[in-house]
Amino acid sequence: QGQEKWPKGDEATWKAGLRGVDSDVPEITKNIVHHVQTTLARQAYNIDDMGAYQATALAVREDLIVNWNETQLTYTKKSPKRAYYLSLEFLMGRTLDNALLNLGMKDKFSEGVNKLGFNMEDVLHSERDAALGNGGLGRLAACYVDSSATCELPVWGYGLRYQYGMFQQLIAPDGSQLEAPDPWLDNSNPWEIPRLDVTVDVRFGGHAEKLEGNRGIWSGGQEVLAIAYDCPIPGSDTKSTNNIRFWSARPRRGFDLQSFNAGNYERAVETSNSAANITNVLYPNDNHYAGKTLRLQQQYFWCAASLSDIMRRFKNTGKDISEFPNLVAIQLNDTHPTLAIPELMRILVDEEDVEWNAAWDIVTRTFSYTNHTVLPEALEKWPVQIFEQLLPRHLQIIYDLNWTFLQAVAKKFPNDVAKMERMSLIEEANGRQIRMANLAVLGSFKVNGVAELHSELVRTTILKDFVDFYGISKFANVTNGITPRRWLDQCNPSLSALITETLGSRAWLKDLYLLKGLLKYEDDVAFHKKWAASKANNKQRLAAYIKSTLGVTVDPRAMFVIQVKRIHEYKRQSLNILGVIHRYLTIKAMTPEERAKVNPRVVLFAGKAAPGYWMAKLIIRLIVNVGKVINSDPDVKGVLTVLFLPDYSVSLAELLIPASDISEHISTAGTEASGTSNMKFCLNGGLLLGTVDGANIEIAEEVGEDNVFFFGHLTPAVEELRYNHRYNPIPVQEKSPALAAVLDNVMSGCYGEASIWEPFINTVRQGDYYLISDDFDSYLNAQAMVDEAYTKDPKEWIKKSINTTARMGKFSSDRAIMTYAEEIWNIEPVKI
Ligand code: GL2
């Protein structure tokens, strides 16, 4: 009586873990209690899942930092050549689970957390995603830092610490996308180490003077302070722990004293606001250039801070500046960091007194550039006028580089004025603009695409002139990869455990080709049973999530068909939803007996549209509204369910991917550079339905064409088809009566007023740039083959699934990062 019940977990463990108490409670548990008690200033009485997450993260962070320190010390002592990965996006997702698995400490921590009265799953789910990226490009950077640490390579990432990450997506009652900010740093971030002592002054504006010998002086303007935040990246089953350094912007002075003395308080405060703005927000555009001045400021701020940091570290080695490329390789992740090229020139020529040609030699032996898209709307071009105002010295440098370059071009291709115009760093039409891709190629010794087909398209289309000029050897391919730690071991524990049990060790996680060992069991009945049980378990897990978030019941026995990625016309979620409508109409026209024979499907969509991409948002709205009609129609109940899951994220991907039977990667041929979620689905035993595009092609080469469902026109046909759409259009009714019926159905008003959908329907009926009408029948055909394969012989299907997983070895990001290391950066592993 009067005595309170102990509120949480095991009382003795809590008490023994407190400060000053001598006990034999395991170190890990003690450490968690310690952080609850001292760092969070809480106790068993008032700690929730979030608090438990924070205390656990703080305890794990200590282990990371110990390894981080040892790694950095080793690098400093051994002074190997290092590579730096400059990426404006790092789409990390959650960290705790990944860190625990890589450190090999998940079981021990789970035990401790349990003793304290928590469930590890709930604790892990309390973490908020770090969403500092839009999609594939940003997630690729995250996979690459994981692999570089795992392969013990001396690689650092450099990025920006955005206050607001990727926006949160909400779906309005009418089906439209709404955006809310993502203040992810509101709860403190345990995974970053503020380095308030590591700062760089970054200048904007002012004026540039030219001296003799191409040297210059840049002065005046406004200085912004860059402050470093370090994020340790643990390798899997190794001490090697690398770093991403994220820069945050602060005003250089609290405010401008001169303006203050002049009585202009508002202007003085404005200076500080605009400076802090630079790292406020991630631009939410994927595969699309928007041309915002603040974005250019972000790019320069980040390049200048990173290069200054790299230069300082290089100088600490005491080596002569001419040795720079022997110790430093810098990878440009797309054209976003291209300003690093003129910035390194500026540092070398203006500050280090290196002669212009010698400086250019250093620069062009340091940089390499990865192209991630051939879509013209994504190519960055900055108005010369903005450069004049913000980066006057860099503009001079670019002009000087262009002058020499165009002379060389003229010499090699005399009288080809058109070629010179295309290759120039400056586009003269539409106001003068600086072409960042041209500058990136000029300043790099290697340029690569991200899948075989894409690299070929880079060589033969957008950079053809440069191949003619430099020769083919400067242009390479490195097919993308994904980390099997996050994208199988972490997201699919049941399949991971089955693979480890079958192969006898966890070695496959660091040598993914070992998955081939599963082929021995492709016909083994007992193995089939376990394989199917894992898939069923993952589908149930997803069904429970759908029930709890959307209140919708889906049957886990149905076939799960998933398309999750950014919403884009070129990715053709439109084709998918039009195909769904066709299926709906077909089923509705059936007798009850016929319907009973239909393969039941749950079709899932997720993905964000750029807030300014009106057509993509309209497509989301259509998907949601078609789903509403289908899901409430008793005629198709249990046979067809269509859902749009809001707010796609890395964490949601981890739940969706292991649960797929089929995933769709159906871009118009030649438009998707690689795709990486295709690899994730296949690694988890989901089969692929796709076009002959990007990495789909290489996946089919590996897993066998009989294990993927291909459809649609091939890349070489696309140009002519588009030409015909413009000049010899054939009505949809003639090309595909099935599609014509679907379009009429949408316009009949059953999913909402016709006027809402008309702009979208018109893009298909007229112009049809993405070739929906050309590929529709072929798409339906592929879907019919999927149904047949799934229903006819379940054993065959499981065999396909096993074969797919077993043959995905090539797509580990360890293979990709080792290719960069050996063939581009010329760096070697360093044992810690
Ligand atoms: C992308 C491509 O669209 C995508 O196909 C590729 O897999 C990734 C990573 O290489 O890069 N290019 C791009 O600009 N974004 C991508 O996701 N945003």
Quick overview:
With 832 residues, this protein is of the alpha/beta class. It folds into three domains: 1-78 and 98-128, no CATH class; 79-94 and 129-478, 3-Layer(aba) Sandwich (Rossmann fold), CATH 3.40.50.2000; 556-812, Glycogen Phosphorylase B (Rossmann fold). It has 35 helices and 24 strands.
List keywords for this structure.
single chain, 832 residues, alpha/beta, Rossmann fold, 3 domains, nine-stranded mixed beta sheet, globular, binds ligand GL2
Please provide a written account of the structure.
The chain has 832 residues and is of the alpha/beta class. It folds into 3 domains: 1-78 and 98-128, no CATH class; 79-94 and 129-478, 3-Layer(aba) Sandwich (Rossmann fold), CATH 3.40.50.2000; 556-812, Rossmann fold. Helices cover 49% and strands 15% of the residues. The protein has 35 helices and 24 strands. The strands form 6 sheets. Strands 7-10-11-4-1-12-13-17-18 form a 9-stranded mixed beta sheet, sandwiched between helices. It has a 6-stranded parallel beta sheet with strand order 21-20-19-22-23-24, sandwiched between helices. It has a 3-stranded antiparallel beta sheet with strand order 14-16-15. Helix 28 links the parallel strand 23 and strand 24 (708-711). The longest helix has 30 residues, at 49-78. It is globular, with a radius of gyration of 28 Å. The termini are far apart. The mean pLDDT is 96. Bound molecules: ligand GL2. Ligand GL2 binds next to helix 7.
